[in-house]
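Batch job 17 of 40 flagged for manual review because the log was empty.
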Amino acid sequence: MIDRAGLAVFLRRRREALQPEDVGLPRGPRRRTSGLRREEVAALCHMSADYYSRLERERGPQPSTQMLASIAQGLHLSLDERDHLFRLAGHSPPQRGAASEHISPGLLRILDRLDDTPAEIVTELGETLRQSPLGVALTGDSTRYTGPARSRGYRWFTDPDTRRLYAPEDHPFLTRMYASGLRGLVTLRGPGSRAAHLAELLVEQSEEFRTAWDEHEIGVRPHDVKRLVHPELGLLELHCQTLLDPDQAHLLFVYTAVPGSESHDKLRLLSVIGAQAFP
């Protein structure tokens, strides 16, 4: 059963505890609100300001689990706070661990400060959960996919458009890398895991994957320098720094170029072009 009063108080307290700079928003010179405004939180949660306001006023329908997940992410809740939110709203909390898509507040705070840098947060299966604006400009919106196609490794073997983002001479290595990475995950997570299901789908759908899978390679690591091909800017050679959240098995990828290099100049131009090169 929903605890409307408890839910309303909890949302207000969490909103008031957040400052604009905590979520990548400008403070502005005339700000009088303690914490974030309701409309700012609503935008972060991808819902209408009216809907969110009704929750804080103990009104409206019982939020769905999808709505609660958006609120938990928008308010930068910890896992314990997220679980508390779900219980107040009358739902069982989602599972934790590698299958969880709840991004930790720490990773979100870092990503919110990377507006001028290509960056993304992905799951261990290569599902993009969040991108910086320049990340979208570099590779397109990778959060738009659904089903198995959310996994970049799955798209590598089933969607030719995915391969256009990478230098052709790197394709054979990337095929080995994705097959090797998925095999390691299947061993780690077990036969009934999402990784195992993904491998079963790819064995059925891709002869190239079956060939690579039969090699039983393990430990094929990504190169330090990624060679990405942008539709308008051409080849960019970027270093990828990785930050791991071990509790959620989420990875924050940050892409940088050597100062003074051609790729560095292209990244600066990319911030002007934005994502207009992608449909």
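Reviewer: the log was empty due to a logging misconfiguration, but the result itself is present. The chain is about 45% helix and 10% strand. Unflagging and moving on to job 18.
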